[in-house]
Amino acid sequence: MSFDDQLPPKTRLLRAAAELLANSDGSPVSTRQITKLAGVTAPTLYHHFGDKEGLFDAVVAAGFEEYVAGERDFAPSGEPLEDVRRMWDNHVQFGLTQPHLYLVMFGNIRPESRPAIVADAESLLEEMLSKAAIAGQINVPPREAARSILAANVGVTLMLIAEPLEDRNLELSTMTRDSMIFAVSTETARGAAADDSGKSSVVVAAIALNAALQASHSDQLSSSELKLFLEWLHRISSSS
Amino acid sequence: MSFDDQLPPKTRLLRAAAELLANSDGSPVSTRQITKLAGVTAPTLYHHFGDKEGLFDAVVAAGFEEYVAGERDFAPSGEPLEDVRRMWDNHVQFGLTQPHLYLVMFGNIRPESRPAIVADAESLLEEMLSKAAIAGQINVPPREAARSILAANVGVTLMLIAEPLEDRNLELSTMTRDSMIFAVSTETARGAAADDSGKSSVVVAAIALNAALQASHSDQLSSSELKLFLEWLHRISSSS
DNA sequence: TAGCACCTATAGCAACGCTATATGAAGTGA
DNA sequence: TCACTTCATATAGCGTTGCTATAGGTGCTA
């Protein structure tokens, strides 16, 4: 009926909220349910978390830790784009196993907590994409690529969550994933060769150099020189 | 204070709900607010719509009509993939101008109404993609392509909605859009490059950029800027 | 022992979604 | 014209929600 009485009320509240949130089929979870399961009374909740939303934020933060841990856990394969694929799949998997947590994290607009979470997820991806950029494997700046891929990843995951379980088709995920990665990558594992002027190769090289510079802290240029240099690089990178 | 008394209560309820939903900054809208603005009492709402959710569904349905109308309004350009681009942009625009409506439509899981809406949006896209398929312009079945593109479209739109208005960057949309379309299309308007021997370092990238720049006559930099830029490049390239 | 944070409980408020019941208006058939 | 049905609206109030004013314990330090 109630929770482990040894644990402090704050922890019991967190666990109770997480459990109820996970098992509620989309229906809202009331503070009374939570406090009853945790074996405490209302003011305790508000003392520790200020708000119902505050409690949920704490639950989400915990869930996000789990998500990030999942994203970091596998060792780099040496093939950055392959790792990006695994990060994508891990993201989808997290959304499907914890749909309610995921919805609070990504399916809502909550100007306070959401951008931070999104930014974190983005930088995880960007980190990996930077490696790909250094290896000259992508033709788009890592930051933009990360934003774009993450957006598609979120969209796919929400789509799958909303779909009834029986006709949930993961092919949507793999197809969209590979489309996005293919689009930003320099591999031309596609038919007809390319002719185009050297312009896009300039862009690729500029992006690669930019990423490499970020990673290496080269000291060949003074900081003021470097600043201007990077600005020019960016200008070159973002030419059409 | 109240709404046009000439209109039937049902219509007034719909308009009041739509107006309040549009102007509420994410905060929930109560039935009491709605009935007060519409100038009716509670049972009237429940007589016509059964439910608060029923009323909201009706509002969403109206909003969806508007969305579909927007998707259909422009005449086909004869270039199906170009039309897909415009549908994408229209979708994003709809989401940004009616964020709360959009969130109810796409950012939630509501097993009843959502799949129908999604299916409709999907078939609009699929219709257009079928034309592209007939013209041999895509290399993926239209249905799968539509699902995939729509998922990415939704993800991007939610991303943009969640972003604070001042640093909302539509480039995310166009880039993701073109990535998705490029990935499913048979056109290979892609640059060469991807020559690199695999070893990646600042030096290699700098050399590559240097060579590429020599060959391409990029006009992103003025001649004086270019001169200094190349000098720095050389300094970086000849570092130990 | 006194004082002081900290934490928790009792009790209850205002607002919420919703409804049992009643009343009015409008049409229909004899 | 009159009962009868049907649809639409209103009065009043139920149960639940998120939240809080207030007070009581508990364990420290002085």
UniProtKB/TrEMBL annotation, chains A, B:
<dbReference type="InterPro" id="IPR001647">
    <property type="entry name" value="HTH_TetR"/>
</dbReference>
<protein>
    <submittedName>
        <fullName>TetR/AcrR family transcriptional regulator</fullName>
    </submittedName>
</protein>
<dbReference type="InterPro" id="IPR009057">
    <property type="entry name" value="Homeodomain-like_sf"/>
</dbReference>
<keyword id="KW-0238">DNA-binding</keyword>
<dbReference type="InterPro" id="IPR050109">
    <property type="entry name" value="HTH-type_TetR-like_transc_reg"/>
</dbReference>
<dbReference type="InterPro" id="IPR023772">
    <property type="entry name" value="DNA-bd_HTH_TetR-type_CS"/>
</dbReference>
<dbReference type="InterPro" id="IPR036271">
    <property type="entry name" value="Tet_transcr_reg_TetR-rel_C_sf"/>
</dbReference>
<feature type="domain" description="HTH tetR-type">
    <location>
        <begin position="7"/>
        <end position="67"/>
    </location>
</feature>
<feature type="DNA-binding region" description="H-T-H motif">
    <location>
        <begin position="30"/>
        <end position="49"/>
    </location>
</feature>
<dbReference type="Pfam" id="PF00440">
    <property type="entry name" value="TetR_N"/>
</dbReference>
